[in-house]
């Protein structure tokens, strides 16, 4: 059966399969060389994502081929975004971008993701997300032209142990009365989830994470519980946590995926203590440094991380639109433009 994108682009499209993972990674490698993006997927990352998507791979991940070569990817990522959200990922090999495949593909993605969502949730709106490096102006223009809005900015920060001096060692001497900082263990998983939901409950755009999604996130192949830490109060409840991971194929830096502190324990230096323990775990594991992503709304976080030795390197912009209301608004705009002769 022909794919709708067959008629819109010069490529032949099919649903992706596990057998395509190596070729998809080859496509991404070419894109990474050309664009130098902050976010990169390894073969292991792709295998993990396909496994978690399960049967939905057939309906949410698509590849475009020129003869036998995969040169484009369209991915509706529902699994990593809890609640009524989907991230639209679209990639085209640099050698094929002059054919305007990306614009046609993204327009189709918005409609296809919405159609798929309505099969199970006919009366619920869907927030569509797209992310891109600030420096990639072409893709930013594509998203804006498609009716999406810039809503959040995420700053990637990195530190190198070779350049930190004694800042980490000094941070490791810090303590807090009434708190024990312990290596993360499975027995703390549920209390950490509750702490996470409380820590981020008032953050714009955040959704509570349920037990199943939390367990899946902890079980990902990239997770490194042996590098992760929790802070316990006198009742052995988690009041702060740092959950760490390893991304990319070189495994040269540890990445702090989640860092949170309950509201009642903020302003006491607990985040600094947890982050210092995390960095010490990275150093003990023989890594070169650490990294994390910061929401630009959290200005205090940027200064905290800089004080330990992190420096900002890249900025990723998040774009959003909401179906169906933004689709209806776009239709009205297009009708007005046609009526005015533009």
What does the model show?
The model has no long low-confidence stretch (mean pLDDT 91). The protein has two domains: 171 residues, Gcn5-related N-acetyltransferase (GNAT) (Aminopeptidase, 3-Layer(aba) Sandwich); 144 residues, Aminopeptidase (3-Layer(aba) Sandwich), CATH 3.40.630. A hairpin with a 7-residue loop joins β3 and β4. It has a twelve-stranded mixed beta sheet with strand order 1-2-3-4-5-12-6-11-10-9-8-7, with helices on both faces. The protein has twelve helices and twelve strands.
Q: How are the secondary structure elements laid out?
A:
Layout: H1 4-8, E1 12-15, H2 21-35, H3 43-53, H4 57-60, E2 61-66, E3 69-77, E4 85-92, H5 101-120, E5 126-133, H6 137-145, E6 149-160, H7 167-171, E7 180-183, H8 189-199, H9 211-219, E8 229-232, E9 238-245, E10 253-261, H10 270-284, E11 289-295, H11 299-308, E12 311-323, H12 325-339
Parallel strand pairs: 4-5, 10-11
Antiparallel strand pairs: 1-2, 2-3, 3-4, 5-12, 6-11, 6-12, 7-8, 8-9, 9-10
């Amino acid at each position: 059966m022909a794919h709708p994108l067959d008629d819109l682009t010069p490529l032949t499209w099919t649903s992706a399969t596990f057998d395509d993972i190596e070729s998809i990674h080859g496509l991404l490698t070419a894109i990474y060389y050309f664009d130098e993006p902050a976010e990169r997927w390894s073969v292991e990352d792709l295998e993990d994502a396909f496994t978690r998507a399960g049967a939905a791979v057939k309906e949410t991940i698509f590849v475009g081929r020129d003869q036998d070569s995969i040169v484009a990817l369209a991915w509706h990522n529902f699994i990593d975004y809890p609640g009524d959200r989907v991230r639209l990922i679209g990639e085209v090999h640099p050698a094929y971008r002059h054919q305007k495949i990306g614009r046609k593909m993204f327009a189709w993605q918005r409609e296809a993701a919405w159609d798929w969502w309505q099969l199970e949730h006919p009366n619920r709106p869907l927030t569509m997300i797209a992310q891109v490096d600030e420096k990639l102006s072409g893709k930013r223009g594509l998203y804006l032209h498609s009716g999406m809005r810039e809503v959040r900015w995420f700053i990637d920060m990195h530190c190198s142990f070779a350049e930190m001096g004694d800042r980490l060692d000094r941070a490791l001497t810090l303590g807090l009365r009434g708190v024990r900082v312990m290596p993360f263990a499975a027995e703390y998983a549920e209390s950490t989830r509750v702490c996470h939901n409380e820590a981020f409950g008032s953050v714009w755009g955040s959704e509570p994470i349920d037990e199943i999604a939390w367990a899946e996130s902890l079980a990902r192949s990239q997770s490194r519980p042996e590098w992760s830490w929790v802070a316990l109060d006198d009742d052995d409840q988690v009041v702060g946590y740092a959950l760490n991971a390893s991304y990319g194929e070189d495994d040269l830096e540890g990445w702090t995926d989640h860092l949170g502190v309950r509201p009642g324990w903020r302003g006491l230096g607990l985040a600094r203590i947890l982050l210092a323990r995390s960095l010490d775990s990275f150093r003990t594991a023989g890594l070169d440094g650490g990294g994390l992503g910061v929401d630009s709304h959290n200005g205090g976080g940027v200064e905290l991380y800089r004080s330990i030795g992190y420096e900002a390197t890249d900025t990723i912009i998040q774009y959003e639109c909401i179906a169906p209301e933004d689709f209806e608004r776009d239709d009205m705009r297009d009708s007005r433009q046609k009526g005015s002769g533009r």
